Automatic annotation (TrEMBL):
Protein name: MARVEL domain-containing protein
Transmembrane segments: 79-97, 109-132, 138-159
Compartment(s) where it occurs, according to its Swiss-Prot or TrEMBL record: Membrane
PROSITE patterns: MARVEL (PS51225)
Major site of localization recorded for this protein: membrane
Lineage: Eukaryota, Metazoa, Chordata, Craniata, Vertebrata
Cellular component GO terms, alphabetical: membrane
InterPro entries per the UniProt record, alphabetical: Marvel, MARVEL-CKLF_proteins
Chain intervals with Basic and acidic residues compositional bias: 180-190
MARVEL domain sequence ranges: 35-162
Region (Disordered): 169-190
Amino acid sequence: MGQQEITMADVGNVYNPTTQPDQGSKKWFAIPSEHLDIIRFGIKFAEVVLSFLAFVLEEVVAGCTSCTPLYFFEFVSCTAFLFTTLLLVLLSTVLYKKVGINRWPTVDFVYTGVILFFFGIAAIVFACVNGGTSVEKAAVAFGFLATIAFAVDLGYFGMTKGLPFVKKSSQPTGDLEQPEAEKLRANGAE
């Protein structure tokens, strides 16, 4: 009776290294990720904080002489705060995979450019037309700081990843295509 008994523990030891789930894939917060590195995460976090402070300070304003610039600044700062927070959460977690958008760099670039444009206009208009109170001046200051943060984000994105609209050619053109065309002409298959 020289047979060895194989127990279930022995079978488990054989299969454990290959059947265990990868513990690294269970992280829900992933910085750096495929769409957001640590520097851009910090810039986007600064955009969220500065937009929020601009919005809160604008909300504290008691009265307005010309309310249209105040309301426009309120709309832009609130929109920037909410949507940048959403974008930051999506790009810094694995949730971006569940949304169904395949062109995240394009979405991020266009969104940042649009908010930069509108935040800049809102801050300039509100700086020109306000009651001159210290709260309004502080709101304008945080509006300009948020605008600068969006500009830095857009510039850094362009420097590190390039423009998302420009297709990168994986095949060199010119020199390789000409010999192929000559071969086709020589064979009469053009």
